[in-house]
Write a structure and sequence with these properties.
It comes from Thalictrum thalictroides. Its EC number is 3.4.11.5. With 494 residues, this protein is an alpha/beta fold. The protein has 2 domains: 14-165, Ribonuclease Inhibitor (Leucine-rich repeat, LRR (right-handed beta-alpha superhelix)); 176-494, Rossmann fold (3-Layer(aba) Sandwich), CATH 3.40.50.1820. It has helices at 2-12, 16-28, 41-44, 258-271, 284-295, 313-320, 329-337, 347-355, 360-377, 384-387, 393-408, 418-421, 444-453, 472-486, and strands at residues 29-30, 48-49, 52-53, 58-61, 64-69, 76-77, 91-93, 98-99, 115-117, 124-125, 139-141, 146-147, 163-165, 185-190, 196-203, 208-213, 234-239, 277-282, 300-306, 431-436, 458-462. The chain starts with a helix and ends in an 8-residue tail after the last helix.
């Protein structure tokens, strides 16, 4: 009889670590609805019997607490650091309460933790980087709190992490451009009998892929384009579209349409062995990003857009038929004066005639005027370095000829509302739209029209910026948008 009694007592007593964990957690909480009425010292002394739990919201495994689920109980107070004593804990859910204070760094001691849900509380302060020591974490949900700081870089090492949500306004994301980096690989891909496109990769070879779609069309890429992305997290892919940059043949208009470019993007993705990727595009790049994503939504993990251009008649008329001239008359007049008065009924058509002239010097003269007009209006404050690009005959010829070719052909889109009409195909994709309030090249009306049919996409209006991605306010929001998308993606090297 004595032997049987002693054995029963041994099975009934709780683990002292669990008892300390539960006692301190209860003391740190306020329970106005009395939801934890059976959370008493007596129960803490014996919370489990094998796989049976005597506590509200607790689940046991072999005599130890391995799950605490206390969501939506109107709990107040703070999260006790002594939760770390529940060393067998695999799942912790305190979501949808009114908890305040910080997330204890002591939770790093929960080495078996796989699910952490602290969402919809009023927690503040930074996210403890020490949580990265919980190597089994599969889900981290911290959204709708008052957290600040940055996402810990250490989280990139959480190889099992499949869901990470900290999508809250209060979180402060990095906004500084990353440092200059060099490609780790590059090459040329033959995409048709005529065209070959230049591509390059930089950043993390095992990171999350992101493809950069340049503007123009015809603008090409530059080394500075790599700096919008965290090189430790992202595998950064840049390529020059048909006829632009280092792609060949230079400034070629033959077999050069939006749909050809979409096919090229897919060929490049397959060539690089990438199952899916994030898409980043500004100005014409936003047009192409929308068209590509709507054609291949299953290949897109997230989208960042800047300076929205939907290729509608009212947008082209604004910039090329005299609207923007009201703001930049000094830049407009040289562009206007190249065209005789009797041809000024449509400047895009008049320039098309000259950009496709059999006389190369006529092409260059028109290309310089076309390019300088755009470069002089692309920044809120004049950027002399950017304006000088109009004097580069090779750059300006591709830029002007290809742009004009697309504009004459209305972007090769079936209708001018095509991109707005097909938003439903990409509504589910996490997207940020960055728009300069005083963008003269791509006025805010287009970003606003897109946001109205796609309210799920976050619209970030930069109050003191124009069109260029290199303006400080625009660049800051683009970096932040990429940082934010990192939190919804698999971590680096996963």
């Amino acid at each position: 009889m004595l032997l049987i009694t002693s054995t029963y007592i041994q099975l009934s007593l709780s683990d002292p670590d669990d008892e300390a964990c539960l006692t301190n957690l209860k003391e740190s909480l306020q329970d106005p609805t009395n939801s934890l009425k059976n959370w008493t010292k007596t129960t803490f002394a014996n919370p489990c019997n094998g796989f049976t739990s005597y506590l509200q919201g607790a689940t046991c495994n072999n005599g130890r607490i391995y799950k605490l689920s206390l969501p939506n109980l109107s709990l107040r107070g703070s999260i006790s650091p002594y939760l770390s004593n529940c060393t067998n804990l695999q799942s912790l859910d305190l979501s949808s309460n009114s908890l305040t204070g910080s997330i204890p760094s002591d939770l790093q001691l929960l080495l078996n933790l796989a699910v952490l849900n602290l969402s919809s509380n009023r927690l503040s302060g930074p996210i403890p980087p020490q949580l990265a020591l919980c190597a089994y974490l599969n889900v981290i949900d911290l959204h709708s709190n008052l957290l600040n700081g940055q996402i810990p870089q250490q989280f990139g090492g959480l190889a099992r992490l499949s869901a990470f949500d900290v999508s809250i306004e209060e979180l402060v994301y990095r906004k500084e451009l990353y440092g200059e980096i060099e490609p780790y690989s590059s090459g040329h891909l033959k995409v048709s009998d005529l065209h070959t496109i230049y591509w390059e990769q930089s950043g993390n070879p095992t990171g999350h892929p992101v493809v950069f779609l340049h503007g123009g069309p015809g603008g090409g890429t530059s080394p500075s384009n790599r700096r919008f992305f965290d090189p430790e997290f992202y595998r950064i892919i840049l390529f020059d579209q048909r006829g632009a940059g280092k792609s060949t043949p230079h400034a070629c208009l033959e077999h050069n349409t939006t749909w050809d470019l979409i096919d090229d993007i897919e060929k490049l993705r397959e060539h690089l062995g990438i199952p899916e990727w994030q898409v980043f595009g500004g100005s014409w790049g936003s047009t192409l990003a929308l068209a590509y994503s709507q054609s291949h939504p299953d290949k897109v993990t997230g989208i960042v857009l800047r300076g929205i251009f939907l290729l509608r008649k009212k947008e082209l008329d604004w910039f090329y038929e005299g609207g923007a001239a009201a703001i930049y008359p000094d830049a407009w007049e040289p562009f206007r004066d190249l065209i005789p008065e009797d041809e000024r009924i449509c400047f895009i058509s008049a320039y098309s005639k000259r950009l496709n002239s059999e006389d190369l010097e006529t092409q260059y003269t028109a290309a310089r005027a076309w390019t300088k007009w755009e470069m002089m209006t692309a920044h809120l404050r004049p950027n002399e370095e950017n304006i000088k690009r109009g004097d580069d005959d090779k750059f300006s010829l591709a830029f002007a000829r290809i742009e004009n070719h697309y504009f004459i052909n209305k972007g090769f889109l079936p209708s001018e509302s095509f991109l707005l009409d097909n938003v439903e195909k990409i509504r589910h994709i996490k997207t940020t739209i960055v728009q300069g309030r005083y963008d003269v090249c791509c006025p805010m009306m287009s970003a606003w029209d897109l946001h109205k049919v796609w309210p799920e996409a976050e619209l970030k209006v930069v109050a003191d910026a124009g069109h260029s991605a290199n303006e400080p306010g625009i660049a800051a929001e683009l970096v932040a948008a990429n940082e934010k998308l990192k939190n919804t993606l698999k971590p680096t090297g996963a």
